[in-house]
């Protein structure tokens, strides 16, 4: 909605995304997650009315097919948001179920044979007196809507509903989607992890039976010890909420003081989350991210300190797994408060008509950092730091795929020191997280078996050097040794 507009209505669309694929590929990304693209009455489109179409504001099915084709040409995997937890209250299934319940006679019990859609949702007779239950039209029945009255929760006990969802998943895989981002997975059965895992196992088995290379990432918005358990479903990844947001590990490392928030604590956390998810599945792929469309943007957490924003990118993107970056983070965009503000227009340039209009209820956003167009020209910009960080990740496959271990012997509250081992090769990553101090780290080359600096990042552009096993690192820098 807010990324790029192609037809001058100031609403982002699929052709707009196509027009920016070279930008995305040039930054080094090899995957895109699209927020919901199916028809929906809301701007955010998490309340779907038709699972087999493209919302007309975003374009047509032909546009989607073109997008898939253009992504393929650039080696980009396209995954789409799939909302299984609830439909729109305007979905024909729900409308038919409510109509049916309204015309039931006194003393007549509902019957799925008369109206199959009745069992697609969670209806009860009489008011259960709970905040998330709503009256179904003028009937005596109530339905569950955990997110809102406009988003009735579906009932996964219904085999007919699951068959509908299988048809929907097959449809999009046949259209060329490379997989799905699975919305709100912990709400399928609120608070019941094992039941949610059962649903996800069914989703995983079905999707992988059609496309074994499909990639799926689930949104289980919870602590590490909970989302780790979801890996038993077989779903490739779950978003790593432990490191994200205003009180997550990345923010704490860069803006909180004390031993539990220093560089060593960051290194320990990397190992901790890896062990937590692997306990449930050996080939679990972490999905680190820092912010998303439900969270305030990083620039605010970092009080518009460009150096800290750069380091937050490094602490996110150099993590093992499939790292995600929310559009606009690469230029330090502004956005907090109501959700609409977090979904503000991508700041391409200050030229008239270069941006989308953003959601209707968005408050005016004033970006503190220059537009992309300006930042591209500045070697020391947040944008160029992001690009360098992603390049460093892509040039060293151990960064994304490696098993992390902490170098306990390199102990310093300002230095995070880890190794990453993949396919028989070990590299080392050192992070100098001191806000002010240059640091020297001694890591004997023969003992650790590395030859050179494979690459480094530096928030101020200062050089990282290696001399006889002593690495000199400017404040806020990261080095990869190979
Ligand atoms: Ca448009």
Question: How is this structure best described in words?
Answer:
The chain is 30% helix and 15% strand. The protein is an alpha/beta fold. The strands form four sheets. Strands 1-2-6-7-8 form a five-stranded parallel β-sheet, covered by helices on one side. A five-stranded antiparallel β-sheet has the order 9-10-11-16-13. The structure holds calcium ion (CA).
Bound molecules: calcium ion
Approximately how much beta-strand content do the residues carry?
Answer: 5-15%
How is the largest sheet built, in terms of strand order?
1-2-6-7-8
Q: Measured on Cα atoms, how large is the radius of gyration?
A: 24 Å
Q: Roughly what is the average pLDDT, rounded to an integer?
A: 97
* Largest sheet: number of strands, sense, barrel closure: 5 strands, parallel
End-to-end distance: 42 Å
- How many individual β-strands? 16
| Uncertain runs | none
Identify the overall geometry: globular
Pairing-aware structural class of the strands and helices?
A: alpha/beta
How would you name the oligomeric state of the polypeptide chains in this document?
Answer: single chain
Supply the number of helical segments.
16
Portion of residues in helices? Answer: 25-40%
């Amino acid at each position: 909605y807010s990324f790029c507009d192609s037809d001058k209505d100031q609403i982002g669309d699929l052709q707009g995304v196509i027009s920016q694929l070279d930008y995305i590929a040039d930054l080094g990304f090899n995957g895109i997650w699209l927020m919901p693209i199916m028809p929906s009455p809301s701007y955010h489109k998490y309340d779907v009315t038709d699972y087999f179409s493209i919302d007309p504001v975003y374009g047509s099915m032909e546009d989607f097919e073109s997008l898939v084709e253009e992504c393929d040409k650039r080696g980009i995997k396209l995954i789409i948001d799939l909302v299984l937890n609830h439909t729109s209250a305007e979905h024909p299934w729900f409308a038919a179920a409510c109509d049916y319940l309204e015309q039931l006679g006194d003393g007549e019990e509902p019957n799925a044979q008369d109206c199959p859609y009745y069992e697609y949702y969670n209806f009860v007779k009489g008011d259960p007196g709970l905040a998330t239950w709503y009256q179904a039209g003028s009937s005596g029945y109530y339905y569950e809507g955990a997110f809102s009255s406009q988003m009735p929760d579906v009932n996964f006990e219904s085999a007919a509903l699951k068959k509908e969802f299988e048809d929907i998943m097959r449809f999009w895989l046949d259209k060329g989607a490379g997989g799905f981002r699975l919305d709100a997975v912990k709400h399928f059965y609120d608070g019941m992890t094992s039941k949610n895992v059962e649903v996800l196992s069914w989703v995983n088995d079905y999707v992988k039976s059609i496309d074994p290379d499909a990639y799926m990432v689930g949104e289980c918005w919870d602590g590490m010890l909970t989302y780790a358990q979801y890996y038993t479903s077989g779903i490739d990844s779950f978003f790593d909420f432990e490191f994200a947001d205003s009180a997550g590990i990345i923010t704490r490392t860069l803006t909180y003081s004390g031993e539990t928030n220093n560089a060593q604590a960051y290194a320990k956390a990397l190992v901790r989350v890896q062990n937590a998810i692997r306990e449930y599945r050996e080939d679990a792929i972490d999905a680190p991210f820092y912010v998303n469309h439900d969270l305030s943007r990083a620039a605010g957490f970092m009080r518009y300190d460009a150096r800290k924003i750069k380091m937050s990118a490094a602490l996110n993107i150099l993590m093992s797994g499939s790292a995600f970056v929310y559009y606009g983070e690469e230029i330090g965009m502004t956005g907090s408060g109501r959700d609409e503000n977090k979904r503000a227009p991508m700041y391409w340039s200050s030229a008239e008509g270069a941006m989308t209009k953003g959601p209707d209820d968005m408050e005016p956003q004033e970006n503190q950092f220059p537009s992309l167009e300006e930042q591209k020209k500045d070697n020391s910009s947040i944008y160029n730091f992001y690009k360098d960080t992603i390049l460093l990740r892509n040039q060293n496959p151990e960064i994304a795929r490696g098993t992390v271990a902490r170098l306990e012997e390199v102990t310093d509250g300002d230095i995070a020191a880890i190794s990453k081992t993949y396919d028989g090769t070990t590299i080392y990553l050192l992070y100098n997280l001191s806000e002010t101090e240059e640091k020297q780290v001694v890591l004997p080359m023969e003992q650790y078996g590395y030859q050179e600096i494979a690459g480094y990042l530096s928030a101020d552009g200062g050089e990282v050097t290696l001399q006889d096993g002593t690495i000199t690192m400017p404040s806020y820098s990261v080095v990869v040794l190979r």
